[in-house]
Design brief:
alpha+beta, 3 strands, 60% helix, rod-shaped
């Protein structure tokens, strides 16, 4: 049996005042999870590489097969083109994974920055009852 690790995150707290300015205000505390950007990048890379494999296996071999078939090449050349299409599929998965990792890390930093700005804000809502 393997050990399941929880997703690493930190929390930020912020408070919301419920009530109007003249009456008693009640504070409601909220916690927002802040994710580790590199962990988010790894998860994003895994999903992006899966998308790259699916895209590559669906499109690239058929495109290579049709391109060689249109040129009137013998069958052995068609199989070579099909093999090149499959190899290009794995290359496409690495490209998708790299882009997915970079975007995941970027979005992780943006998300954590926004959460850090929200933490410490005090929102006042007028509630008429």
């Amino acid at each position: 049996m393997g050990v399941v690790k929880s997703f690493p995150y930190r929390t930020s707290r912020f408070f919301i005042n419920l009530g109007d300015k003249n009456s008693n205000m009640t504070l409601q505390e909220y916690e927002v999870k802040r994710f580790e950007p590199f962990s988010l990048g790894k998860i994003s890379a895994a999903f992006a590489s899966l998308g790259g494999l699916i895209t590559g296996f669906v499109y690239l071999p058929f495109i290579a097969f049709m391109a060689l078939g249109a040129g009137g090449e013998p069958t052995i050349m068609l199989l070579g083109g099909l093999l090149l299409g499959i190899l290009a599929t794995f290359f496409l998965a690495f490209v998708y994974a790299g882009v997915g990792f970079a975007l995941g890390v970027f979005y992780g930093y943006v998300y954590n920055y926004m959460v850090s700005k929200v933490g410490g804000l005090e929102l006042v809502m007028d509630i008429e009852g």
